[in-house]
Amino acid sequence: MYRFFTILFFLCIFWIFFANAQEIVVFQQEKEIVSLSVPNQVSVLKNKPLFQEVLEENGQKVYMLTHTDAQLSAKAADSMVTWVKFSLQNRMSKDVYLEVGSFSIPYFEVYVPNKVGKYTMKKLGNILPASAKEVRSNLFLIPLISGQDTLTKDFYLAFYHRYTHLAPVEVSTIPLRLGSLPLFIKESHSRDLFFGFFIGIIFIMSVYNFFIYLSIREKAYIYYILHILFTGLSTITFVGYGFDIFWADFPQFNQYVYAFAINLPNCFLIGFSIYFLETFKYAPVWHKVLLLFIFLFIANTLWALTGDYASIVLGQLLILILCLCLFIVSLRTYLKGHRTARFYIIANTSFIAGVVTIILVSNKLIPNNFLTAHANQIGTVLEILLFSLALTDKIKTLTLEREEAQKENLRLVEEQKEILEQKVRERTKELETANQEIIAQNEELMQQQEEILAVNEALEQSHNIIKYTSDRLNKSIQYANQIQQVILPQKEKINRFFKEYFALYYPKDVVSGDFYWFTLLSDHKAIFVLADCTGHGVPGAFMSIIGNTLLHEITKTKNIHLPSEILYNLDIAVRNILKQDESKNSDGMDISVCFFEKQTNSNTYQIIFAGAKSDLFYVKENQIHKLNGDRITIGGLSNRIKTFKDEKITLHEGNLLYFSSDGYIDQNNPERKRFGSQQFQNLLFSISILPMQEQETKLLEVLKAHQQAEEQRDDISVIGIRL
């Protein structure tokens, strides 16, 4: 029994050893390319960061790595590494090359033994410049054994995870092939021809559709052209032509191109689909879903710019989901009556078929041949061509719809034309009837016009008469104003008796009902009068002339100088001249009379004042005082005997007196408020310190500020005298 179990144990060990023994690849045919498979020809080793550890595990010594390469390999101690080992014997006369058929590998190392058994390390990957390649190709070609070397040798490949942000390197998905350089170059020429044809189609379709866009200005074409261009960029990026031809010396550019190449073509595809399928009309819910996809692809682009491998995985997942969504949306719009969506369904199906084929080939579920290896590009070309047919069909459909609409419009125009002609005939008949009525009315209007012309002529004659009369009246009033100005006291005469004075004389109309009067009795005696006659304008002016004449008669002819007696005689004279006892005329005047006697020995003035409804203001010892006149007027309808009293005061040289009619005090502002007696008295006191001419200016400024745009109510007169 013991011997049986011992034999069984050694048989198991023998079976395990030979079952896992690696097959040696023997090259005998020069026209043959051999694909390496896991685990038959290739063994995979993991969790061995250093090349020395890999050699030790395989029974080889550490010193077999050259000194320089050992230092470089030691830097990988902090990285996760997947090692690939295969054995090779060359029995043909040509050199054997290894092709690593995936350009998307960021960085890997190839360890090649030389004739003396030491290993040389070769660094490759898309993070290195294209000059790092020994053979210029869109993929990676590495010379392994020369044609004269027939020994069996072990080769190692190290794939570093740190350059893929810890993404696992799945060796089984990386195509590894062995063959002679002429065979690979021949195959590369076929591949170059295919992709040249592919890029040519991309370019031609872009230019063709751009010119179509310029002629019809359809937004869908812009998104379609951008989708084509970025699809071409995506293709040449992922198969290595972009790096090999355009940015060979800038490997860092690969990361950014990947970010845009995997996401932006889909953004523009969504934009094209939205406008072509009119999702906002036929599938509003899916329209919002597609807009969400645009946001996701843009966000994934920004993520991919950081170099994170997970963004590429997410991008591939989003593409698969998007293809399914676009298929559902196109089918839904077609079922809702969007006829041209059928081309979109076929185009989308061809693209999905290409993507699915590539996935099946990558997982080795179907054979890898020229057709399946380029299924993605073939599906893309079919998609582009079918999209062009779809756009052409849409334009044709729109053209037919436009023609049908034009025909319908022409039919409607003809119908409207007939209706309008009928209405025109009816309207013409109505207009003819109305025209007859208008002719009759026109005759009546002509007759009325003749009558109006006659009336206008009469009015014009009346206007001319009125204008002539008005001109004469205005001239008469202007002449009356000149006369009134002449009878006012002369300035030089007043200045001979008083130190200085001002006269604010502001008529409401051209001529005034206010007047002031002055007579010099001797070098030491004088009389000053300010009167406000009833009314203003021409009536007031007549009264002022009467008053002026009567004052001259009373003081000069009758030689009456006492103010109260002057007022008494003036009242009797006015009543007699106007015959007020008989005619019931009520005109009269309010008047202030002052008699001045200068005392030369004491530089004082003896002043006697009497007033008829008029007051006198004077400033003495820095105070303003007021002498009130009697509350009766000169003239009027009163039959009682009027008596007036005299007020006597003594003033010194430099003291001020102010005479005023009621026009200033009664003037209203826009709120209908009078200026008022108290405010007027305060104003006189405030300006008493100013020179006389400045006092006149200040009085006028305050009046204008109070009055504003209101009409002047009465004649305004304010006389200021400095003794």
Automatic annotation (TrEMBL):
Residues 388-462 form a coiled coil. One of its GO terms (molecular function) is phosphatase activity. SMART domains: PP2C_SIG. The chain crosses the membrane at residues 193-214, 221-243, 255-277, 289-306, 312-331, 343-362. Residues 500-723 form the PPM-type phosphatase domain. Keywords: Coiled coil, Hydrolase, Membrane, Transmembrane, Transmembrane helix. InterPro entries: 7TMR_DISM_rcpt_extracell_dom1 (IPR011623), 7TMR_DISM_rcpt_extracell_dom2 (IPR011622), Bact_Sigma-Reg (IPR052016), PPM-type-like_dom_sf (IPR036457), PPM-type_phosphatase-like_dom (IPR001932). This is Serine phosphatase RsbU, regulator of sigma subunit. The lineage of its organism: Bacteria, Pseudomonadati, Bacteroidota, Cytophagia, Cytophagales.
